[in-house]
Every structure is written in C-alpha cells, then in structure tokens.
C-alpha cells in the first residue's frame, strides 16, 4: 500500500517571532511545487500565532511539540488540544524522549495524551525508541513494543488509524550519528509487524517516520527503505535549505 510520506520539523526550544517568520518564508519559497510529501512544522507554542499567519497560502501544516491531557481548568502552565486546534495545529508530537527523560513522562501518561488527541480529532505523532544502553543490550524491539502496547492496551489498535509513529533511537537524536538505513528499516519493519499482528489494515496505513540526526546528506538513502515513511527532524529543521532538501528527498523516493 502506498503511504504518503510525512516530513515534520521539531524546532524544540528554539526561535523567536522574527526567526519564525524568516524560516517559514524560506520554506515556502524552497518548497514551491513540491507535492508528493506532507510537510509539518512544530514551533514552540509561543510562536503558533506567528507561524499560523506566516503559513497562510502554504501547504505546510502546523504542529506542536506537546499537549496536556486536561482540556480546561486549574492546570497551571498547560496547553490543551482545543488551544492547539484554535491555531490550526494538526500533528502533535507526544512521547519525545526529551519529555520522557526530563519530565518523567510514563508510557501510560503518554497513552492518555494519545487519547486526548484522538478525541479532539488531532494527529498524534508518537515518538518511541531505545537508549544506547538498551540498544547494546539487544532490547530495541522490547522497548518499542512496550511503548506501542501502552497505547494499544489503553485504546485498541484502531487508535493508530490516521496516527503517526516516529521511531527515534535516543542515541541518534542530536548526536550526528544516525541509524543506518538498514538498521532503521529493520526496526520499522518490526514495528509494522507488531501492529499487523493485531490488525494488518492498521499496520498498512500507519505512517512510521524515522528520527535521529536526519540531514540533507543522509535523508535520501533512508527514504529508499520500504517501511520508512518520512522523518521527524530536529536540528536540520531549523534551516530552510536543509529541511527542504529532506522534504524533496522524501517526495522523490516515495513518488
Ligand atoms: C528529534 O529530537 O526529534 C530529532 C530527531 O532531533 P535531531 O534531528 O536533531 O537528531
């Protein structure tokens, strides 16, 4: 089954109003005429308004880096699904390893965020992946299965209809040391088979992005792999030419 690739930029804790305007202007011009790939950006929520207006007239879709499980009320500092929708955000990253680590987010808590997003009609981008120690101990598949099963156990496998999984080995994030195309493909195939064991139809349509030091030099080869449906990009998403080159590589490889 042909899946439309998705390349998404995770800006993390970077940017300003001016940076947001300039980067989006650069992306709009670099990506003119590129049609065979869905493209999303997740700026800090502070800049969603700036980004929404800068994106007017573009096919680039707005996303966000996090969401809270609560919808309204006395939850100081939190951001709800309704607030994200208010700015036109669609693809929402949850379970990023930086939040799992620095904010102690558990698999079960992340499954609640997944539920909140589905309830609101937003698209969860569920980040999963093993640490370096887990990788060296041969636990990659066990960790990925556990992180996916937390969602399946809470919501059923059908929750992955229209959702996105980002396989991001922690040892590859921000290190310049990407997984090789073959390494990533092996894990992506495992993830798809793990979901297929519950539902082949859900597995066939779920977008599985690779993330971890993707750049304009290594993207094309990663996208030749059949189960890599795009990328979640950190560092290289902060420069319009590099991010656009990754998008173009996905569009070309999957056309
Ligand atoms: C990320 O944190 O989602 C990521 C993939 O970062 P980088 O591309 O910088 O490794």
TrEMBL record:
Substrate binds at residues 10-12, 174, 213, 234-235. It is an enzyme of class 5 (isomerase). Gene3D superfamilies: Aldolase class I (3.20.20.70). It is found in: Cytoplasm. SUPFAM superfamilies: Triosephosphate isomerase (TIM). The active site is at 96 (electrophile), 168 (proton acceptor). It catalyses: D-glyceraldehyde 3-phosphate = dihydroxyacetone phosphate. InterPro entries: Aldolase_TIM (IPR013785), TIM_sf (IPR035990), TrioseP_Isoase_bac/euk (IPR022896), Triosephosphate_isomerase (IPR000652), Triosephosphate_isomerase_AS (IPR020861). Pathway: Carbohydrate degradation; glycolysis; D-glyceraldehyde 3-phosphate from glycerone phosphate: step 1/1; Carbohydrate biosynthesis; gluconeogenesis; Carbohydrate metabolism; erythritol degradation. CDD domains: TIM. Keywords: Cytoplasm, Gluconeogenesis, Glycolysis, Isomerase. GO terms for molecular function: triose-phosphate isomerase activity. Involved in the gluconeogenesis. Catalyzes stereospecifically the conversion of dihydroxyacetone phosphate (DHAP) to D-glyceraldehyde-3-phosphate (G3P). Belongs to the triosephosphate isomerase family. This is Triosephosphate isomerase. It comes from Mesocricetibacter intestinalis. The lineage of its organism: Bacteria, Pseudomonadati, Pseudomonadota, Gammaproteobacteria, Pasteurellales. The gene is tpiA.
